[in-house]
Structure formats: C-alpha cells, structure tokens
Amino acid sequence: MILAALLPICGAQAAARDPSVPMMAVAGYGSARLVGHWFEVGQTPSFLEQDCHGTTAEVALRDDSRLTLKIICHKTSVSGPILPLDGVMAQTDPGLFEVRLVKLLDLGNLHLAVLWQAEDDSMAALGSPEGQIGWIWSKSAHPDAAMLDQAKAALVGAGYKARAIKLVDQAE
To answer: Which of 99, 14, 95 is nearest to 57 (CA)?
Structure first.
C-alpha cells in the first residue's frame, strides 16, 4: 500500500537528474568516512522526504561491515512531528552503497554514490543513479557557503539540475 502511494512521486523525482550524465563515485572511498551525525543541508525533491524540515542523518558502523542509517525528518516544520527512516547501508564498491530502508522494504535496495566529500569529512554530496535522491550532508547545521557550493557543484556535475537543489532549513 505504501509503495503504491509512492510510485507516482518516484516518477516525478527522476526529473531532478539527467540519467545520460555519468555518475562517478569518489575513488578509493572508505565507508568509515560517512560515520557520524549529519545535517541534511541540501536536497533534491525526494519521495523519501516529502515536506521534511530539519532533517538529520546518523550513520554508525556495525559489526558486520555494513552501516546503520537513521534519518530523522520533521514533518511540516523544524519542530513538527518526527518521521524516522531507519536502514542499513552496504558498500558494494568504493563510494557506492545499497541502502535498505526497514519500513519501506517494498522499495528494494536504493543505490547511492558518494559524489564528493570534503577532505576533512565535514560535508558530503550523495546521489542515486536513478535520480530519486540528491543529498548534501554537513557536520554543521550552518555550513560554510564556499563548501556548500562545492557540494552543489558535485551534484550538478553528476547530472542533477541546479534549480532542483534546495537548501534544508535546520533548527539550530
């Protein structure tokens, strides 16, 4: 039932990215670089995060070499009710992940690529080849503008339309 409701939304999200543009993950990427608390400071329209505000993600190492992903979305406003999205991330190649969301198993695995990450690991740009997800994650709720521009450029370089990338309001 949930999947049926999301299918029309999924089709609309693909327009955020031109699939003819090759998507290249960060070469030699180690999954431990994603570990930590992240603020979602930018995103493209996503079926996962309709009307989300103050979104954060927590990535943690597991005993089995995979990562645990916990996304917290506040519906309607930064102080609105919480929609939790929990999942598991498995690195399939350097910089490439398959994500399985626990409450949305009917979606199957989502594919994610780390397109860019700051040398100090303070910000990252992630995208999906299918275009359903384009995220900019930062360790700071209010990141440096120049670094944010680099993350946006990584998404645009991977085929995302610049006008589709929206900043995410954070409560802090």
So the answer is: 99
Asked if residue 83 lies in contact with residue 168, where contact means CB atoms within 8 angstroms, the answer is no
What are the φ/ψ torsions at residue 86 (nearest 5 degrees)? -110, 145
> Which 8-state DSSP code applies to residue 21?
S
Please name each of the domains of the chain with its CATH number.
2-6+28-167 (2.40.128.20)
- The tokens describing 142, both together, are 């209010």
Q: How far is CA 131 from CA 66, 86, 88, 146, in A?
A: 23, 20, 20, 24
Q: pLDDT by residue (tens digit) across 33-64?
A: 999 999 999 999 887 778 888 999 999 999 99
Nearest C-alpha neighbor of 43 from the set 172, 169, 139: 169
Please enumerate in sequence order all residues whose Cβ is within 8 A of that of 121, keeping only pairs 6 or more positions apart, or say none. Answer: 33, 36, 139
User: For the chain, what percentages of helix, strand and coil (3-state, to nearest 5) are there?
Assistant: 25, 40, 35
